[in-house]
């Protein structure tokens, strides 16, 4: 029987706070494919059992950028999904881990970076992918729709995240053993019109597909 692992914790990257202050130079965007449609770079991030989606602040769209109001120098926004009580708790016992596998409320962790994702998470944990205009529109809509609103239409902020530059929002939908953080990330890539297959539960499965897509895109970008 395949083990699903723990319920998508949002681990603290080593020296993330320092990394966000270093390498402040903006990552240069790749040139568009000659004669092809405009493309935008997004990133899939491996964080142990967990995965995030990142995109450059200018590419996030007005409604998603509004989530980062109050953060100075935002260059990249990263988003990850998880079981609300588990990801916001400081201690994770066996009972909390098991209960998180049952259908329960979810949270979205937004991490604001002023340096490229490679500086914060390590280049080996980052897979860059290209999406077209429609794919970017789809991803923007998916990210904003994943955030629960208050009665007056404002994003429901739950509190500060586990490290500087991060914040928790209430997420729409529920988390359970069959819809994990990695399922959420995979759905986001599908919203971006990327061909991600299957009901993905594990980060390793998702990252293998993401790396395969990156290899497929590389020849077109090289032309």
Automatic annotation (TrEMBL):
Signal sequence region: 1-29
Keyword Signal in record: yes
UniProt xrefs under InterPro entries: CHP02117 (IPR011727)
PROSITE patterns the record matches: PROKAR_LIPOPROTEIN
UniProtKB keywords: Signal
Record keyword Signal present: yes
Protein name according to UniProt: DUF2459 domain-containing protein
